[in-house]
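Our preliminary data section would be incomplete without showing what the modeling component actually yields. Below, a chain of 386 amino acids is followed by its predicted structure, encoded as tokens that our downstream tools consume directly.
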Amino acid sequence: MYKLVYKFKRHYIFKRGETYYFSKQVPKDVRGHYCRSRMVICLKTQSESLAIKSASSFLSKLEEYWAHLRLTTINLPASHLLRAPTQSQRVISDTIKLSEAMEQYCRLKGAGKADTFFSSTSRNINEVIKMFGDLPIDQYSSQDAGKLRDGLMDRGLTTSSVKRIFSTIRAVFNLSINERGLNCTNPFTRTFLPSEESGKRAPISLIDIKRIQDECFKIKDEKRLIIALISDTGMRLSEALGLSWDDVSIDHTYPHIKLKPHPWRSLKTASSSRVVPLVGASYKAINLIKKQQDKSNIVFKLYCNIDRCKSNSASATLNKWLKSRVSNGVMHSFRHSMRDRLRNADVNPELIDEICGWSQQSVGQRYGNGYSLKHKYGSMLGIIFK
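Predicted structure:
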């Protein structure tokens, strides 16, 4: 609620919470120089007398500046001799810049969060800063939000990736607007983001999976081996990228990966911590990667290090390659295909959820330690291409 506490000719201050603000309608004849018809400036004081003094001084400077603007629009004799306005005469937004808003968001929301929270927040906010500059947050517009969406999608990012980026941006803007009592709206709130590329994401056919795997093993570089690994495990891309060699047991009786969170990569849900058998193309891919690697403990060094995983970059690159070969294919489609492949191999639905890391559907399913590695491995053998 706003409380009007002082008013005189062309001069308003109001109180939001305990802090005073200056509010002034921009005159129509100079409104073309502003992006809004009303300016609201935080006076950064809880004292009414100081607020009145600051607002009076600010209004005086405004009137002087507006007078200058009016002079520049008329045919004034010797107008070429007018001095350009100094930096101190220009009206500058008093609102914090986006980088400062991000720092505030991380400080307030980051308690107890993994390093990936801070790295992903920084990465997503920097998408805005790289495109439009580090501006006060009330200087961004809904048009900017639309341009950002289009730019991200033109780079090949999936709709879900764009939605995650926008979710972070919206959260940072909302927190700063609410915490600082700013009289502006979040320009990223109402941006249209399309539904997933084809409504319900279609799985990749068995014929296409086999064809993609064969091509991956012909090229045998790190990018293609990531695809091959995921194609026969159904892992999420971020899960695969964040693997360390400590997670991988190649020489076990039942070769497998033990997925667990790392400082450089968290997991999506509690169910994501799981054991995934290595069979078929995934077993072949992990062995080829091992032979190509040096002594680094990170499996996929191209997109991951001990500080963070570059999942968005990997997603854009790998999806672009995959779509050039399968019209409806993205990396996440392999997870949808895996569920169908396991169903067709008559694998129990509860076991399918365990292997792929989907949340258990009932309370009863959460009791006990789940299926044994031997049982999981035997079930996964049913999906191997003969």
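The longest strand covers residues 2-8. The radius of gyration is 28 Å. Preliminary results of this kind motivate Aim 1 of the renewal.
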